[in-house]
């Protein structure tokens, strides 16, 4: 199993790094559109949603799916 050292970031660091990544990928206007869109869906309980989506998946399956998605981008 892989240890993700990046999981030790504070919430503030995650928001800053995530914002920078979105701006780099989408540009400022795309970033703002993303934020406006995500404000409407942020009322969901992410942990409950995560449990529903990944309930029957192993960590290896999640990793393989993420890797395949990244390679097919």
UniProtKB/TrEMBL annotation:
It comes from the Bacteria. This is Uncharacterized protein. It comes from Paratissierella segnis. The lineage of its organism: Bacteria, Bacillati, Bacillota, Tissierellia, Tissierellales.
